[in-house]
Amino acid sequence: xxxxxxxxxxxxxxxxxxYSLIPRWLKQPGKFMLFIEAFVAMCFxxxxxxxxxxxxxxxxxxxxxxxxxxxxxxxxxxxxxxFDILQVVGIAAAIKLFQLRINAIKK
Length: 107
Hints:
This protein has helices at residues 2-27, 32-61, 71-106. By secondary structure, the chain is mostly helical. The chain has one domain (2-106). The longest helix has 36 residues, at 71-106. The model has no long low-confidence stretch (mean pLDDT 92). Keywords: Membrane, Transmembrane, Transmembrane helix. The chain crosses the membrane at residues 6-22, 34-58, 78-98.
């Protein structure tokens, strides 16, 4: 159930990368601003992911109280969130870029 709720964060992240960032990345010569935009978007999605876990999943799905963390626990959970989102976005982006490459070869 909790992974289903986290899809509410992962799906918009994938959609944003596939249909906003990648087309502009392939067409624009100046890529620095797109890199900054991608970084800010990633920070937003990681923050939304952590908020969803902390304030929705723990109290309403697992029935645990939100707790305070040590710095090490916070860092570990932050990295887990980053890797979880990047895994889904990375696989979807790889498939999209593969499809674009196949279409370019066919032309």
